[in-house]
Amino acid sequence: MALINNFWILSFILFLIASPLLQVVRCQSDEAAANAGEVSDIGIVGDETDDAQDFADGGFPSAPGVDTICVFPKNIARLVKGGEEAELLVGLKNDGQSSLNVVAIKASVHLPFDRHLLVQNLTVQVFNNGSVPSSAQASFPYIFSVSKFLQPGPFDLVGTIVYEIDQHPYQNTFYNGTIEVVEPGVLFSMESAFLFTLGTALLVLLGLWINGQIQNLKKPKRSSKVEVGTKTTDPSMDEWLEGTAYTRSTSSKSKKK
């Protein structure tokens, strides 16, 4: 039992050490992405221009009634291979009174311990026809790639979608969380391997504990000894049995002693 307790304590300490790598991200689940609607022809990707680049570089407020979510299709772990293309879907819901026109999607990579330190500006993806009517929703693909010279490890990704309403620019940050850059061909990161090892060890320990409990239940219980004292009789019972065969047998036994 002491070994089991020590193992639990060690596992908890290892989990605390790994917790800085397990940063909570704001990207919604696949179920939320399904609610954002399927990818349609509403956003046609065009070539990047200088005007669109300047427009996307501006800092604009978000419009009321416009919400965004995102999801990494078939990439729950959010692993991005250096030098290779990665894809995410941006879902946009327009609950405002006017239709909006999506102009561009941009993103940037930052150091995880200080988001003010910029590592790389990613491609600005421009949309020539990204109109979303009022009370409608749509999703837009964003394809990006980080530098192949980027050192593998966790980084912060900040993604923004820029749109216009009545010729006024607005923007929403659809993702502000962690991705992990891995080398091409690497299927598992060090973090994933650690979590897999820790989870396997905990499952094995749980199995051993359950087996021990089952063995304890199978052990036969020891019967406790019962002390038998001297026999006592109730006087009222003797009077009721007086003159019967029971009293005669009792008296004969006492005479033999």
From TrEMBL:
The keyword Calcium applies. It is found in: Endoplasmic reticulum membrane. The chain crosses the membrane at residues 193-212. It is a single-pass type I membrane protein. Keywords: Calcium, Endoplasmic reticulum, Membrane, Signal, Transmembrane, Transmembrane helix. Residues 220-257 are annotated as: Disordered. Residues 1-27 form the signal peptide. It comes from the Eukaryota. The keyword Membrane applies. GO terms for cellular component: endoplasmic reticulum membrane. TRAP proteins are part of a complex whose function is to bind calcium to the ER membrane and thereby regulate the retention of ER resident proteins. May be involved in the recycling of the translocation apparatus after completion of the translocation process or may function as a membrane-bound chaperone facilitating folding of translocated proteins. Shows a remarkable charge distribution with the N-terminus being highly negatively charged, and the cytoplasmic C-terminus positively charged. Heterotetramer of TRAP-alpha, TRAP-beta, TRAP-delta and TRAP-gamma. Belongs to the TRAP-alpha family. This is Translocon-associated protein subunit alpha.
